[in-house]
Amino acid sequence: MFYGPIAIARFLAETYDLVSDDDDAWLCAQMDSLVEIYEGMCKEILLIRRQPKHSQEEAWQDFKNGKLIKLMAYFSQTLRNNDTNWLVGKQVTWADLAISDFFAFLVDKYDSTLLFDCPAIIKHIESIRAIPDIAEYISSRTELTK
What we know:
Protein name: glutathione transferase
Number of strands: 0
CATH architecture: Up-down Bundle
Catalytic activity: RX + glutathione = an S-substituted glutathione + a halide anion + H(+)
Helix content: over 70%
Number of helices: 6
Enzyme class: transferase
Domain GST C-terminal: 24-146
EC number: 2.5.1.18
């Protein structure tokens, strides 16, 4: 039995061959590291959402202008360095799914202009959303309320 979303995501990634294009331990470690960053960012957003309504905007701005801007620069550079449109390796991985979904969520729910200066992240999100099964899922899902 698994507990926790990262353990479940890792299991699904292994099951659906989203871990690595080969058995390269270095690539797997890079993916795990990126997913740990993702997990930390999710915890930050959860803390913001748990704030009283009147404090959420200030908490969001503090996070955005502090940690998030640095992470956006890091992910932009990582995408440019890999030269494949994926964060690591030569094919889409679970790290790509997690990170692209996180940034898409922030754009959809918090700040539609967030990624204007991050074309590599925008292209990454578009590439993920263009994967046929993901595109089909996105077009058929219903909007969740906050």
